[in-house]
Amino acid sequence: MIDKANESHTATAATGLRGVVVGASTVSDVVGDKGELIYQGYNIHELAKSSTFEEVAFLLWNKCLPRRSELDELKRAIGEAYAVPKPIIDLLRQIPREADPIDVLRTAAQFPTLVAAADRIRRGLDPVEPLPDENIATNFLYMLKGEKPSEYDAHVFDVCLVLHADHELNASTFTARVVAGTLANIYASVTAAIGALSGPLHGGANTNVMKTLLEIGDIKNLESFIKQALAAKRKIMGFGHAVYRTEDPRATHLRQFSKEMGERAGDTKWYEMSRKLEEVMMREKGLYPNVDFFSASTYYVMGIPLDLYTPIFAISRITGWTAHILEQYADNKLIRPRAEYVGPRNLRYVAIDKR
Ligand SMILES: CC(C)(COP(=O)(O)OP(=O)(O)OC[C@H]1O[C@@H](n2cnc3c(N)ncnc32)[C@H](O)[C@@H]1OP(=O)(O)O)[C@@H](O)C(=O)NCCC(=O)NCCS
Description:
- The chain has 355 residues and is mainly α.
- 55% of the residues lie in helices and 3% in strands.
- It is built from 16 helices and 3 strands.
- It has helices at 44-50, 53-62, 68-80, 86-94, 101-105, 111-122, 136-145, 151-164, 171-181, 186-197, 205-216, 219-231, 249-265, 269-285, 291-301, 309-330; strands at 28-31, 36-39, 42-43.
- The longest helix is centred in the C-terminal third of the chain and has 22 residues, at 309-330.
- Coenzyme A binds at residues 16, 201-202, 205, 235-242, 285, 287, 290-292.
């Protein structure tokens, strides 16, 4: 006879907390069906066109755009903080060269300087002293390559930072808020967020997009490669989104950058392959590209190593993480959801020899 109380039941709770609203926030909003992204009330398209990353950081933290004096003060403070203490650079020298840069980032702070320094050290080069008078985008590219970027590259990189700065309760930001909700400090919260970002379904996707394009190798192989991958139920990185059901507004800007970057470099191969991939994915799966798709070919043509794409995402998203962490501290409640238990109940312990 079946004991009803022992039976399992099928879960009805939303898996992955999809669609579940877990709190209020003014930092950003994703309107999935309209393809809209808003930071503290401002549409991302307007910010991508007219703003800078430093302005966006101020906006996320202070809920308003800065006055000139406030922006100057923020830029001065950021510039002063570019340099990292020598013992931290010495620590980076101890890290094995094959270590993944996103893991290296978890061991330290001051993101742009560390990402650039760690990359140079693993290439056998000395870190470059930061330029405190330059903005984050210019200074980062300078510290990475050892020479000042063109105005165009610095502008594109700056807008990329603007576009990645915040995205409501994405997995890493939610992680940061969960950790902050325990009243752990801001460093612990950010460190946990980096871990969440590193996964291939989240920020790790951008590196994997480029790996896929390189694996395909040539536009003539693309369609058959993708069809085979889809038939094997393989996910194509850079497509689909948990909230957007239409074009990701960030992809609109990045597509244009990928095209322009390619044209300027006289090599539109990766842009053309990306466009073709976009067409095949729409036809085969009805899926739109997300933020990670065109950022991959943009960074690639800019000459940035593949495994830095996700740390670069972190250089930008730390502004959103910290805005959310501060919002969490300001009105804190421990985040402690419930699980819907679907296992059996009332089982009786059976002695080991009788099982
Ligand atoms: C982002 C992502 C995790 C959102 O997923 P989600 O809303 O939970 O949707 P699911 O993973 O449940 O996918 C729903 C369906 O679309 C398919 N799908 C979603 N994204 C896909 C992709 N990139 N490639 C192929 N199929 C995909 C799933 O296989 C599933 O199909 P099925 O119903 O036949 O099983 C998912 O689209 C994905 O894994 N994308 C690739 C990784 C990526 O680019 N991440 C960066 C996000 S900004």
